[in-house]
Amino acid sequence: MKHKWFGLSAHAQGIVSGAVSALCLTSYFVLNKHVYNAYNPSAVEYALLFALCGGLFGFASLMHRMDRKMYENAKRDFGKFWLLATISFLAMGLLVIGQRYTTSINVALLGTLTIVTTMFFSWLLLGEPPSKRQRLWLLVMFVGLYVGIVGLNTVHLNSGDLIVLSSILLFGLGNALAREVMHRQGAFVVPNVRLVLSGGMALVASIFLIRNIDLMVQILPWALVAGLFYWLTMKTFAVSVHLINANHAVVLNNGQVISTSLAGVIFLGENYTWEKFIGSAIVLASIYYIALGEVGIMPHIHTQPGQHDMVASAFIVRRDAGEWKCLVHMHKKIDMLMQIGGHIELHETPWQSMAQEISDESGYELSQLKVLQHTSETPNIGQSILHPNPFLVNTHNVGNNHFHSDLCYGFVASDIPMKAIAHGESQDLRWYTMLELRKLVEDKIAPEDTVNIYDFLLHQYASFAKIPASKYSLNKPSAGLATNDEKYKAMSIW
Questions:
Q1: Is 45 exposed, middle or buried (0-12, 13-18, 19+ CB in 10 A)?
Q2: Dihedral Cα 20, 22, 28, 33, nearest 10 deg
Q3: pTM exceeding the 0.90 threshold for the entire prediction
Q4: What domains does the chain contain, in order, with CATH numbers?
Q5: Do 258 and 127 touch, CB atoms closer than 8 A?
Q6: pLDDT tens digits, residue range 383-415?
Q7: Which of 33, 57, 89, 275 has the fewest CB atoms within 10 Å distance of its CB?
């Protein structure tokens, strides 16, 4: 499906989607607080009603788009979906209950801590520690939160703040655990299934815990609208991640700390002080630099005009539910979905570089992959180290009269990566069919060359020999071919 929003580019659409996700989250916070102020319902009863309404929108979304193939694929992670849904149900319930006892402005500020708790559980469970720079900005963020919530006074958190904090811990746990499932199921299925299962839990709990039926019927329209905004927050955030990248989408979404503060003052009459403004600004700036991580531009090895760098790319395919899927990730520099790969450093062989890029950027180990070769036969070359052949080599202009000569290696995987993506690398890893990749090219989200090379690889796939990638050594030769200076001088003319 092409994105045609008033002629906006895909990148501009992503920015708009991120901003809309922030406004939807603001609307959700403010509506919940309005219900508490106007109707004074039981916090537990309203939380259950809200979760049920959110589940309805998730169910409608799944029914609209989910086909049998998605359903069969989702059944493979049935147990993990229930675990994620249980965590989501508790987190969502505690957040809505906490709103009963604190302001929407405080909830907005505390809600930004989700990025911190997600990082913490990713470190604890997935072995992904934050970088030194991220740890520094986490400290700055806590200063901003302190100033925004407590002001310049001694620490004092009300009961609502503490309940919201407990929900933020659970949201972080759920986000970290969802990463693995996201790789297999996709960004559409996982959040909607979590919403539906959470709504089912709320339905069962409502039978035993909701007593004031008349009041619940009275506030049902508000709960439906709040549930809609909660679902729209997830939907527009996912679109933003898809069209730009996860880091920028996180920053845009957390802009809700500003919009919620303004809405709380205008619509709820909440008190807003200069401490809250300064705290919010510090928090938002911190989120930007935390989400940015260790993003940097890999320096070119050869920097003079017209010079070339050697790079290596991995084109990885996998059969999933009878279809070929191609692996891409969101490139952190150019904000496009591309194959994984990088520069061949001066101290690396091409195969060492390829193995390192695969491990860092996808989480695959060579033992999980087969490399595609035009023949399974290899020569006996004595003391030299034999590398696999790239299936394609190309040279392209990367701008400023600088060129990359790219060694394109083809791989086939039978399973998902066994380890987490390295810290500082793009965490936005996706599997697409060729049809889906073609649509991404139309939307200018993926380069046409990347897609054409994947297309060529799949058309030639049957002719390739599939060799275990771990068969090829990552070592360097232990002894030189030359035994004296004369032989070395003779070799230097090659």
A1: buried
A2: -140
A3: no
A4: 10-292 (no CATH), 308-475 (3.90.79.10)
A5: no
A6: 788 999 999 999 988 777 788 999 999 999 988
A7: 275
